[in-house]
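Lecture 7 notes. Example A: sequence first, then its structure tokens.
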Amino acid sequence: MSSPVIVIAQLEAKPECAELFRAALEPLMAATRQEAGCQRYQLHQDRDNPHSWMLHEQWESGSALTAHQQQPHFIDFIARAEPWLASSNIRRYQPLDA
């Protein structure tokens, strides 16, 4: 049995593109939450920087995450939003047993 994968994606839009970027996140989030293997897909906005967001994702397995990255809604979001990004930092984590 594979273990869950946690993804923390820190995304900062160029200030002039922040509204476009945020609007593009909505359909991505709605479609992703319907995917098999998606256990959490939650967006947070930085309290001090309105152009910065954090996606907290939890996938039942690495293969579920890989499948997500091959979905048309994910590929479309990346293609559309990449020019609007000032920076991104994406990290993958695995739970540790206590």
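Example B, a different protein, same format:
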Amino acid sequence: MANTVGLQPEQLADVGRVDAAEILREIRRQEAAEEQLAPGPTDPRVQMAVDILLDLPPRVREEALRRLGPEHRRRIEEG
């Protein structure tokens, strides 16, 4: 849950949840490793869009991704 809301491991450690902080660090290590294995986009505009999404706060990012449901994807494809 801490990962979803964007907490940092240090924040958890500061409130005495050292165990949860270490778990969050491990989650972040695994996510970073998975990102390194995934092939990067070939079109620089795709990378730019991904970078913008990653820069958003987690809740805003989730909303943006949710809005890219089938209806919005059709609108994008139709231009």
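Note on Example B: Residues 28 and 75 are 34 Å apart (CA to CA). The mean pLDDT is 86.
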